[in-house]
Amino acid sequence: MGGFMSGPALDAHLVGLPERGEPPRVSLGFRNSRIPVVSALKRGVPSCAADVLAKGTQQQVRGLRSLLPKDEDVLTLSKRTPDCRALDDLETFLQSLPRPRDHLKHGVQSGTYRVPKGINDLADLDMDADACVVVSGFPGDEDNFTFHFYISEAKCIRQAVVFPATGTALMEFFTPGWAANFLAHQNRLFEETGLRANYMGHLFSPSEDVITSETQLPQLEQQLLSAKQNLRNKEQQLQSVMKENERLKTVHLRETKHLKNELTREKQAKGCALDQCQRLEQDNMHLTSQIEDDKREIERLKKRIASASNEISRSREMLTSNEQQLQRVTTENEGLKTALRREEEVKKGSFALRRTLEEENVNLNNQAEAYKSENKRLKTQAEADKTENDRLKGQAETYKTENERLKEQIAATSNSLYEMSRDLRGFANRDGTEEDTDVGRCFHFIKENVTAEWKDLAHQLAFSRPDIDTIDERNKDYKSRCLDMLGEWQKRKGAAATVDVLMEALEELGLTSVVDGLKSKYPGPQLSTL
């Protein structure tokens, strides 16, 4: 709820309104301070309301116009920003305010009421002076609908009255807490919206605090002195302005003279320009005809370009094929260059090699002569060596025959020694079986014919690796190791150490020649059955 009032007409407010009785025509009423605010019926008659109320009601009257911001002190929105920017900023600012503690009490202590309209059609509003704030800096051309549309969006404002002439609004918040919170952020309000806020509660003082005309006289005299001082300052400023004006006139005359000279030169230049324009028109006509000729020439050239484009396409294809052929030729040329370099290197190498070979040939000829003489000497020595070789061959045959005889003798001696060792060890006697005697007789033949294969035979007869290593360490040659292994095998197996088992082990190892030799050398009962 709210309304519009004229700033110059709203120039009085009452102090000491009686609590009872018929109230006068008022525009605004403040319940907690018993102070109404009245507005004159006509603009331009600001003292009308004060005179009528002071004489007719015996009330103390004070001018409200002096309490509102002056026109020159108000930075209205029309001078600051266009449209409704201040109202938008104010709406955003009000939405960002924190809620006070008494925000839930609005509507309980501040209810609105409307009295019947009088003959002057004045809207009567009931407002709380403690919750009222004067905000200045609004645009002076806003209508009632636009202002109240923006104010209604703010949930914390109960009602407002706008003074369009001064760009000022009297806003009543729902609670005094909202007003105090709004005033606490007035610096941020000015920074964000350009609006200024003032508290109105202390201006509506009771009757005992009203300043009389006697107390106002010293203040007015002081204000008069200040006004006179301001007037003197204004006169001094006016004199300085007049001096500056004289200086500017002198400058203006000088500039005017200069401009006249410039104008004369411009007229002359204009005449030259007109002459040049005529020449340009003639040139333009000539150029127009030339343009027509050029157009025809362009059409002819376009046709030639079209045919040339086809020719260029064919040439491009030929160029592409030529480039490919050139690349192939270049590749072949590189190969030929490489081959040529290699051939030159080969020629240089062959020339050096030929010189080297010639030198080597000379050396070889010299060596050949030396070899020939040496060959003659070696041939003579070879004849002597051949004679010596024939003699050595005869001697070798003699040694071979003697060796065969010694082998047979050694074999006989070994058999005799084996028979003697059997008697000493006690593993055979005259009372032994025929099978044991046959196995012992085979041991001597096996150890003569099985030399390096004795380890394989030991594996075949189930000897372990440590046992084989032990036998290897305590004997010095293959024969003694083989004989020791066979004796150990017979001792372990006892009656199971037969000739058949020994023959099978030899055949498993592929020693068939040893088996055949045993059969031919010892044809006993056991061997004949195999």
TrEMBL record:
Keyword Ribonucleoprotein applies: no
Coiled-coil intervals, chain numbering: 217-251
Limits of the Death domain: 446-522
Composition skew (Polar residues), residue ranges: 312-333
Keywords from the UniProt entry: Coiled coil
An annotated GO BP: signal transduction
Disordered: region residues: 312-335
CDD domains (UniProt xref): Death
Database matches in InterPro entries: DEATH-like_dom_sf (IPR011029), Death_dom (IPR000488), FADD (IPR016729)
SUPFAM superfamilies registered for this protein in UniProt: DEATH domain
Domain of life: Eukaryota
Protein name: Hypp5788 protein
Species name: Branchiostoma lanceolatum
